[in-house]
């Protein structure tokens, strides 16, 4: 690092422009060396397993002591902590994500005050590190529709973000034909009210007449956060195309009862569309793939699974279920078979993935073309389509609340084997 550091700065933190910890500074006359964060974590874990120089009574890290330490921990603490972390950091891909409940403000009233009162030694966010203005740090999250953190906990992670990737992404394992077809028809979309982002998800090209192209996606993209029976006010839609361009989308049709929307892109002629009119037989245990695209990065993702004979927990009785594990970024994306045939459109579930079958979607599109947008207000018992809201998870709060060993948590979170 080229920044000069005085002797008084030795041992101080090196942070990025968001205030996140990068490493610890040392001293040199011309440049400032620093110990990276991952090496510090390795050393901390080593110290934990090594007896202190003054302790001659027992060896720390022995099987007896470590076993006793693990016995005091909540068995689900680390699993819940891992969900919502960067999926690329998760090495144990077979671990089934679980739900963190103690950091969810919707389940814990007055959580912000509780955190501040219970953890007075942790700086309140945003702490002024003098590198980036506090307004800029706040705007980074507000512009994306995310809540602001409460604590300057270096291990904090945003749960249920729109940028979270599939935990078992197998895009690179798709057949050349399926990958080629999907890469040209799957897009990412984001909706905005003013400058604030409301939602982000996946969509798929369904037709093009040479002057406009239509995209099938989830109705959650356009639904108001304040009143789920209405479309958001001052709605703006942006589409991240396969060629990386961002273009404006216009809401053409929607049915909030079935949570389906059609977006048109003017002056765009796509080279390929999903073939949704071809009927493909899909029975129980049929292998399927859920496809998604992240809005900000444009990254394509795929998750594998099978169709199962299980009733959806959502209200809509037309839905079927697959075992594909997706994130919020994959909502509205296509469910396909191994040959790339369109099976349905994915929604979100905490355990499995509900999807709208192709037959139902074809009927809805036919109704749109014949009658226009459905009137949601005339549905006597409209379906609800809940999507988990993003919130911040703090490892230090798990350590305090559940007795979780923080170093054990960090060991699981950052593996380098």
Keywords:
417 residues; alpha+beta; Thrombin, subunit H; 6-stranded antiparallel beta barrel; 6-stranded antiparallel β-barrel; 9 helices; 17 strands; globular; disordered C terminus; Peptidase_S1_PA; Peptidase_S1_PA_chymotrypsin
Quick structural gist:
The chain has 417 residues and is of the alpha+beta class. Helices cover 20% and strands 24% of the residues. It has helices spanning 37-49, 63-71, 77-82, 111-118, 134-142, 176-185, 358-371, 395-402, 406-413, and strands at residues 13-15, 21-25, 34-36, 157-159, 186-193, 196-208, 212-218, 235-240, 246-255, 260-266, 287-293, 300-308, 320-322, 334-336, 342-346, 353-357, 391-393.
Helix run count: 9
Major sheet attributes = 6 strands, antiparallel, barrel
The domain count comes to 3
Shape: globular
Structure description:
By secondary structure, the protein is α+β, with helices and mostly antiparallel strands. It has 3 domains: 1-49, no CATH class; 71-160 and 392-413, no CATH class; 167-387, Thrombin, subunit H (Beta Barrel), CATH 2.40.10.120. The chain is built from 9 helices and 17 strands. The strands form 4 sheets. Strands 5-6-7-10-9-8 form a 6-stranded antiparallel β-barrel. The chain has a 6-stranded antiparallel β-barrel with strand order 11-12-13-16-15-14. Strands 1-2-3 form a 3-stranded antiparallel sheet. It is globular and about 75 Å long. The chain starts with 12 loop residues before the first strand and ends with a helix. Residues 53-97 are annotated as: Disordered. InterPro entries: Peptidase_S1_PA (IPR009003), Peptidase_S1_PA_chymotrypsin (IPR043504). Residues 56-68, 76-92 have a biased composition (Basic and acidic residues).
């Amino acid at each position: 690092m080229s920044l000069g550091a005085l002797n008084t700065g030795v041992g101080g933190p090196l942070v990025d422009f968001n205030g996140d910890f990068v490493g610890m500074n040392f001293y040199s006359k011309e440049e400032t060396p620093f110990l990276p964060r991952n090496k510090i974590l390795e050393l901390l874990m080593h110290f934990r397993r090594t007896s202190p120089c003054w302790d001659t009574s027992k060896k720390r890290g022995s099987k007896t002591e470590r076993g006793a330490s693990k016995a005091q921990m909540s068995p689900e603490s680390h699993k819940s902590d891992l969900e919502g972390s960067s999926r690329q950091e998760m090495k144990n891909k077979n671990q089934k994500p679980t739900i963190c409940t103690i950091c969810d403000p919707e389940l814990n009233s007055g959580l912000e005050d509780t955190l501040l009162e219970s953890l007075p030694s942790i700086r309140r966010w945003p702490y002024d590190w003098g590198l980036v203005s506090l307004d800029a740090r706040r705007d980074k999250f507000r512009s994306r529709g995310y809540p602001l953190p409460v604590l300057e906990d270096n291990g904090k992670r945003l749960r249920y973000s729109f940028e979270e990737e599939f935990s078992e992404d197998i895009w690179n394992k798709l057949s050349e034909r399926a990958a080629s077809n999907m890469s040209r028809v799957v897009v990412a979309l984001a909706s905005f009210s003013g400058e604030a982002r409301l939602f982000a998800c996946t969509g798929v090209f369904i037709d093009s007449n040479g002057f406009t192209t239509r995209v099938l996606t989830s109705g959650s993209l356009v639904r108001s956060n304040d009143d789920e029976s209405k479309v958001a006010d001052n709605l703006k839609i942006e589409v991240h195309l396969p060629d990386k361009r961002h273009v404006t989308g216009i809401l053409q049709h929607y049915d909030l009862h079935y949570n389906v929307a059609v977006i048109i892109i003017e002056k765009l002629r796509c080279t390929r569309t999903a073939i949704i009119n071809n009927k493909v037989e899909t029975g129980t245990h049929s292998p399927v793939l859920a496809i998604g695209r992240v809005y900000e990065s444009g990254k394509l993702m795929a998750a594998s699974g099978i169709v199962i004979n299980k009733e959806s927990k959502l209200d809509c009785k037309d839905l079927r279920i697959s075992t594909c594990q997706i994130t919020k970024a994959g909502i509205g994306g296509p469910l396909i078979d191994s040959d790339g045939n369109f099976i349905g459109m994915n929604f979100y579930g905490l355990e499995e993935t509900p999807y709208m079958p192709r037959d139902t979607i074809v009927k809805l599109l036919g109704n749109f073309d014949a009658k226009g947008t459905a009137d949601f207000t005339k549905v006597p018992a409209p379906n609800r389509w809940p999507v988990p809201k993003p919130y911040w998870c703090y490892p230090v709060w798990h350590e305090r609340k559940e007795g979780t060993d923080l170093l054990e948590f960090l060991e699981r979170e950052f593996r380098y084997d």
